[in-house]
């Protein structure tokens, strides 16, 4: 089994920044899997926000391109999401997961509001 634990969320004003962290443990060969950050806002489906391949290549959703940066530390089995210039529409629960998807963690709440 794979366990995923997200952290780093909180309440931030528009234009602010947050850095999310995700720790993976269990039966995972972390350094050869692609990892992604997802988010789910109330009433919406969960969507992929950013993806980092095991080689370190990155892809972003159109809505976060240029504002969010995904990175990883294979030695620590961690993946990060640096979020800058946050907007109210970024408010959601953020999750990390591998490719292919495994059972979800609890996520971390990000609220962008003045």
DSSP strand (E) fraction?
A: over 45%
Secondary structure category: mainly beta
Characterize the largest beta sheet: strand count, sense, and whether it forms a barrel.
6 strands, mixed
Shape: globular
SS element count, helices: 0
Secondary-structure element series = EEEEEEEEEE
Q: How much is the radius of gyration in Å?
A: 13 Å
The portion of residues assigned to helices is under 10%
**Overall pLDDT score:** 96
Distance between the termini: 40 Å
Sheet with most strands: strand arrangement: 2-10-9-4-5-6
Q: Uncertain segments of ≥5 residues (pLDDT<50)? A: none
Number of strands: 10
General description of the model:
This protein has no helices and 10 strands. The protein has a 6-stranded mixed beta sheet with strand order 2-10-9-4-5-6, with no helix packed on it. Strands 1-3-8-7 form a 4-stranded antiparallel beta sheet, with no helix packed on it. It has 114 residues and is mainly beta. The N and C termini lie far apart (40 Å). Helices cover 0% and strands 50% of the residues.
């Amino acid at each position: 089994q794979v366990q995923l634990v997200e952290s780093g969320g909180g309440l931030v004003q528009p234009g602010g920044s947050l850095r999310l962290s995700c720790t993976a443990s269990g039966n995972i060969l972390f350094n050869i899997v692609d990892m992604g950050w997802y988010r789910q806002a109330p009433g919406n489906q969960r969507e992929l926000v950013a993806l980092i391949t095991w080689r370190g290549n990155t892809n972003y959703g159109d809505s976060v391109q240029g504002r969010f940066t995904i990175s990883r530390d294979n030695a620590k089995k961690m993946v990060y999401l640096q979020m800058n210039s946050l907007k109210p529409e970024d408010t959601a629960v953020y999750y990390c997961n591998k490719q292919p998807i495994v059972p979800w963690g609890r996520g971390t709440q990000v609220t962008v509001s003045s």
